[in-house]
Design goal:
Shape: globular
Structural class: alpha/beta
Oligomer: single chain
Mean pLDDT: 90
Protein name: Uridylate kinase
Pathway: Pyrimidine metabolism; CTP biosynthesis via de novo pathway; UDP from UMP (UMPK route): step 1/1
Largest sheet: 9 strands, mixed
Function: Catalyzes the reversible phosphorylation of UMP to UDP.
Order of helices and strands: EHHEHHEEHEHEEHHEHE
Number of helices: 9
InterPro entries: AceGlu_kinase-like_sf (IPR036393), Asp/Glu/Uridylate_kinase (IPR001048), Uridylate_kinase (IPR011817), Uridylate_kinase_bac (IPR015963)
Strand content: 15-25%
Catalytic activity: UMP + ATP = UDP + ADP
Strand order of the largest sheet: 4-3-5-2-1-6-8-9-7
Length: 236
């Protein structure tokens, strides 16, 4: 399961940056051609963030639904680049019914698509307000039987502090889910880490902007930070 942040799709701005989507699709296509099954969850931060809109007075539930629709736009952009430029067969499934542009989320159908070598891109988040797309990635990964959640970020991994603010921040090579939660490391939604901890799902946090990193993560190379629970399922 590959989790992509929506803010990266916008290249730091509002909307979709075709150059970024092209880079991401090229990396995904290279992995798929090796025979690896790939599912993707994309955020919508390049369009809307429910929590931020709430701070400006908007109803949180309505703001979150706007964010969910933003994720679908990102899904369609990635689907277009994968199919048009790389010939990779894809399916978009959404938690909110929109039959003209995507299938509804059906776990068994998603698994069947993966078995056929298709990339399945999940949009619409969890379909409920107050749940992040990080949590959606964890839930979808567990339900369709993924081996690991690859959490692509704009930083190299999980640090002791924000490396953009603290030049002395150190990166972890390995850390447990519980340590991430107890230290309050703000790398992803706490609910996502808690869900993965309870179900022994490893997470790899790595830098998406480094060309070829998705393939390196899939091969189990030592990049980024591996989050796991001792005694859980074996990681890559």
């Amino acid at each position: 399961m590959l989790k992509l942040g929506g803010e990266m799709f916008g290249g730091g701005g509002v909307g979709v940056d075709p150059d970024v989507v092209q880079t991401v699709s090229r990396q995904i296509a290279a992995v798929v051609r090796t025979g690896v099954q790939v599912a993707v969850v994309i955020g919508g931060g390049n369009f809307f963030r429910g929590a931020e809109l709430q701070q400006r007075g908007m109803d949180r539930s309505r703001a979150d639904y706007m964010g969910m629709l933003g994720t679908v736009m990102n899904c369609l952009a990635l689907q277009d680049f994968l199919e048009r430029e790389h010939g990779i067969d894809t399916r978009v499934q959404t938690s909110i019914t929109m039959g003209q542009v995507a299938e509804s989320y059906i776990p068994r159908r998603a698994m069947r698509h993966l078995d056929k070598g298709r990339v399945v891109i999940f949009g619409g988040g969890a379909g409920m307000p107050y749940f992040s797309t990080d949590t959606t990635a964890a839930q979808r990964a567990l339900e369709i039987g993924c081996e690991i959640v690859l959490m692509a970020k704009a930083v190299d991994g999980i640090y002791t502090a924000d490396p953009k603010i603290d030049p002395d921040a150190l990166m972890f090579d390995n850390i447990t889910h519980r340590e991430v939660l107890e230290r309050g490391l703000n790398v992803a939604d706490a609910t996502a880490f808690s869900l993965c901890m309870d179900n022994n799902m490893p997470i790899m946090v790595f830098n998406l902007l480094t060309e070829g990193n998705i393939a390196r993560a899939v091969r189990g190379e030592k990049i980024g930070t591996l989050v796991s629970t001792p005694g859980g399922r074996p990681s890559f």
